[in-house]
Amino acid sequence: MPPGKCFASSSINQVKRVAHNPYSSVKGCSQPTYYSKMIKIVGIWLGVIWATMAVAQQGAQQRYVGLQLLNLNAEPDYGADIIEQSVGAGANLVVLTIYWDEVYKTATSQPDWRQPDRQMEQLARLGVKAGIRIMLGRKAERLQGFWTSNEIMNDDLGRPLWGAYGRTCFSLAHAPTVTKAQSFLKEVCQRYNAYQSQGTILYVTFVNTPTQELGYHYETELNGDYKQVYPTGFDYSSPSLEAFKGWITQQYKRINKVNYIWGTKFTSLNDVRPPTTAYRPLPAYRTRAGKDWYLFSHLQLKNFIDQSIRTIKQVNPSYKVVNEYGAVIDAQAAVRGTIAFKNLDENADGTKVHNDPYWNHRFITDVIRSNRLGKWIMNETFFSPVYSDDLLIKHFDECFENGCNVVTMVASTKDTRLSSIFGPVAARWKNRPWSELRSNATISYKVTEVLDSTSTMVEKAWRTHPQPSPIDVKLEEDILGEDYWRILAANVYPVVANPIIDRATKPKKTYSYTLPKDVFIDPDGEIVTIEALEKPQWLTFSNGTFTGTVPDQLGESKITLRAIDDEGATVQTSFLLKIVNVNQKPVVKRTLPDFESSLNQTISYPIQGDIFDDPDGVIVRTQAIGLRPWMSFNSKEFSAYPQEQGTFTITLRGIDDDSAYAETSFKVKILNRSPIVKQLLPEKTIAQNKAFRFKVPTSIFTDPDGQITKVKAVGLPSWLSYDAVTSTLTGTPTQLGTYQLGIRAYDNGGDSVETAFVIKVDLYGTQNVPPVLRYTPPNAQLYVTQRFLYKVSDSLFYDTNGYVDRIEAPNLPSWLTFKNNEISGIANAAGMYSVTLRAVDDDETSTSTTFNIEVKQAQLSFELIQAGKAGLRKSLGILKNGDVLTEATLPQSITVYANSEAPATKVNFVLRGPYSKNYTATRFPFTLFDEEMGFVPIAGRYVLEAVAFNDSAKVSTATIQFTVKSDQTLQDWEAYPNPFDRVCNVKLPKDLELASVEYQLLTVTGSSLPLNKSIVTVVEETAYIDMTSLALPKGTYFLKILESGSLKKIIKILKL
Q: Can you state the angle between helices 175-191 and 288-315, rounded to 10 degrees?
């Protein structure tokens, strides 16, 4: 009986019994003798070995056309019809997804295995291979008892990972949660171990991201809204950042080394943070800091993978484990942490990637195959109505042709098209044995090249070889080698950054000179000691300062200094100290270079250090002579925005305290830029002996820094003339032929540019054709008060036998204008607006197209944040109008983010309540407090108003009220805090008729101050009384509370 045949009608429990007792299926069998039992046991084991070898041999050559079942529907019988259809069409593999959060919906619920059990039984009955994908992510509402918000993967804005189907993931740096996840891996593999022993299971995978891939996710949804998804990197959770700091400390040892290599300014190793990746992640990985962050993330992922594989194989070493990723070679793989997949997959039996149907499947398969020799190579495609059958079949074919053993297709509903895809693919590939491919060429790439976003050159090199022959694409995991850390091995010697010029002083004076801080620098450490090796006896040197009384004797002395860095390396410099009777002129310490630029091109040059030095005094002022109005100079920077051409000499003069001076100069040369051809003239075909007239459009030329002053035609045939006033060519051709002439444009600087114009003369000429629309302009969406700008490209229309003379925009909405081929304006009302663009050619024929602009009213929402440094901030969720928060559930310090749907450059915040604050945030994320600041959530009612601006235009606004409720157990009529600052809270009895309650404040002199109900908020029998507006002086007061005019209580309170 073939292995697995007995499972056709068995439940999972029956499978376990058969596996446990090999004799249970033999009816009427008496107790075997010792020897007969031994013979049977040996026979059984030989059979198992034979079966395993047969399965292994078959598995090594068999190709698998598979259904990937995501099991998005948790119903126990879900998927049976899809499995039946797919297997019936030819699929010989079905991969099941088993969700941790569906088996265990809560930490205390009984496990629900019904769906995977039934699906596994069905596959055994159908006689096809099974794959198991174990999903370790969980839905955000099913985390309690598994991990907390502190252990969720976070981005650098403190926002949690939130992705497809509402799922998130734990931090791989949090060992207790990793252990829980591996316990579930073990439980799954133990449950289906009988199937594994019988050869039903082909492989097992484990995934953790919302898109069911292994690694780090590449985006997150703001507040779980898929419409507000943005790219970002992970993992900036507290466990991950703490592990990262420890790892960086172990590698670099000193903060100066980190700052030198990273180009940062951290004050200590404990302050080190990885680079930010939110909204624009890829540039970070091109830096050394980003590569270190990638390497750390890789090692965390590698550790998790290795632990997980060990866990699975401890259940049964014959389990085949496959690592499946979203991608491994594109730039996004940097964010996923999967570029160095060779190392990640060191202990795995196979590698699988998920290709988009439009990707280069042959190239990606070559990449995996070349680096995983002897291992299973797998790919996955996605069934969707938007993808044609031919496209998906091509995906299967190209992967199999270049070496894949397994290709699966994700499908979640029964569809007749499944058969039309699985059928031809299975017929072509299922019975064609897999074999090793021989490549015709080899290329290579490095991990750091992918991190630098230069890996596209690898695919370009791959395309230069004949296709579809397989090509080896070898990965060098350079970031994992010793050379990556070689930069740390050698100490960088200190250097003399700014030599000291010779100094001077007069006899019998008290002398003092402090070394500038930038004389010596240590690029990768710090200067720990500066000592004077040589100096006159009358001079002392301590803490960087020379002091002493100058002797009454003229002359000079040599002073030699030595600087020593924190690794003992040294550097020396010397200067002379002269004793003289006359003032020493200032000297030029550093010069400025000459500059070349053109009109309206910014020049900016930062000045590092002093330009002048005075040997025996001080520079009292620096003059800049020859500055033009568009130039600016100060001690820190020279800048210019040229408005005229020419060569300008700027002289800098440094004047000392005796009015002596030194000068240095530099030149600023503003050059004319030649005009350029903006649009080529089309070839014209005209009729012989027929009058020809053509107006040359001067708009085909433009000048980047001036204007076109003249256009002329050169190289004209004898029958053609040019009128410069009207820019018109006229003439009647008498002979057939092709004529090429030049149209030349001159700018106001005298430079020129020329473009060719070809005229063909035949018997009939060509009839005019209206302009052609190359593409339809995209529809646009924007928000009220947001500026709209659309540059109509010169390539939008073209004319096949002439030129587009002009583009018009008739009947524009009133808030839009059209000028210089730009449509612009500020939307002042919501609505749908239609815009028409019309191209008119040189024969006045036209073509039109339209697009729509949808103008919406922007919304502004608030997000409650745990305050702290970058990387430690935590999102506590959306803050809505009317929310009631409890002190016990809030951190010690909170702040608020404002998220505007419309682009914004600043947000004005106004917070009123027990804590009040006005603040303007001018950078994203827009937060009520800058940096790590926040406020203590004191009990009371708060009003928060925010107005978002894009430059000076208001784009959105919102006002909410929320209340912070005390968690103190209070007695009726108890006031707190007492003494109070702005808000005093009172616990009211339950039987009080709140609608009839009045509040008054009495002073010690008996004066009464009625309290308006607008300053009182009552939440769950607690009155929050905000007395900020009363501007009370500190002292003793009495709070008088009445119900329907009758006195209920007088409470003594103290105002701070």
A: 40
The secondary structure of residue 136, as a DSSP letter, is -
CA neighbours closer than 13 Å in the CB half-sphere of residue 139: 12
Q: How confident is the model at residue 875 (pLDDT cuts 50, 70, 90)?
A: confident
Q: Which domain holds residue 979?
A: 975-1055
The Cα–Cα gap between 952 and 975 comes to 45
Cα 306 to Cα 328: distance, rounded to the nearest angstrom: 18
Q: What is the pLDDT of residue 801?
A: 77
pLDDT class for 870, splitting at 50, 70, 90? low
Q: Return d(Cα 976, Cα 970) in angstroms, integer.
A: 9
Tokens of 947: 């107005």
State the pLDDT at residue 24. Answer: 32
First vs last C-alpha separation in the chain? 90
Closest CA to 352 of 330, 383, 321, 331: 321
Does the pLDDT at position 969 exceed 50?
yes
When the pLDDT of each residue in the chain is averaged and rounded to a whole number, the result is 89
* 49, part of any domain: no
User: Which residues touch 857 (CB under 8 Å, ≥6 apart)?
Assistant: 783, 784, 830, 956
Instruction: Check residues 236 and 991 and name the one with the higher pLDDT.
Output: 236
C-alpha to C-alpha distance for 700 and 755, rounded to whole angstroms: 9
What is the DSSP code (8-state) at residue 913? S
In this predicted structure, which of 40-54, 666-680, 792-806, 935-949 has the lowest mean pLDDT? 40-54
Please report, to the nearest 10 degrees, the dihedral formed by the alpha carbons of residues 915, 918, 921, 926 taken in order.
Answer: 40
| Residue range 747-782, pLDDT digits in tens | 988 999 999 999 999 998 888 889 999 889 999 988
Q: What's the CATH code of the domain at 597?
A: 2.60.40.10
CA 14/CA 750 separation, integer angstroms: 95
**How many residues are given for the chain?**
1056
Does residue 416 share a domain with residue 295? yes
* 516 CB neighbour count, 10 Å cutoff: 15
CB 377 within 8 A of CB 402: no
Last residue of a domain, one of 637, 671, 705: 671
> Please, are residues 744 and 757 in contact by the beta-carbon 8 Å criterion?
no
**Surface-to-core class of residue 334, CB atoms within 10 Å of its CB (0-12 exposed, 13-18 middle, 19+ buried):** buried
Contact 181, 305 (CB under 8 A): no
Find, among 819, 847, 685, the residue nearest to 765 by Cα. Answer: 685
Q: Band the pLDDT of 300: cuts 50, 70, 90.
A: very high
Strand partners, 590: none
Say if residue 707 is in the same domain as residue 662.
Answer: no
Output the six-digit token pair for 650. Answer: 């700027």
* Residue 283, amino acid: P
* Nearest one of 367, 441, 354 to 402, comparing CA atoms: 367
Query: What is the pLDDT, as a whole number, of residue 27?
Result: 32
Task: Give residue 4's pLDDT.
Answer: 36
Structure tokens at 258: 């980190």
Q: Which secondary structure element, helix H or strand E, spans residue 35, and what is its range?
A: helix 34-61
Kindly state the average pLDDT of the residues 341-363: 95
Residues 953 and 993 in one domain: no
Q: Is 844 helix (H, G, I), strand (E, B) or coil?
A: coil
Considering only residues 51 and 412, tell me which one the structure prediction assigns the higher pLDDT. Answer: 412
pLDDT cut 70: percent of the chain above it: 94
Structure tokens at 637: 């920077």
pLDDT in tens, 520-579: 999 888 899 999 999 999 999 999 999 999 999 999 999 999 999 988 999 999 999 999
Environment class of residue 35 by beta-carbon count within 10 Å: exposed (0-12), middle (13-18) or buried (19+)? exposed
Distance CA 963, CA 943 (A): 9
83-117 burial, b at 16+ Cβ within 10 Å, e below that, comes to: bebbbebbbbbbbbbbbbbbbbbeeeeeeebebbb
What type of residue sits at position 670?
I
850 shares its domain with 864: no
Predicted local distance difference test score (pLDDT) of residue 1028: 80
Global pTM?
A: 0.58
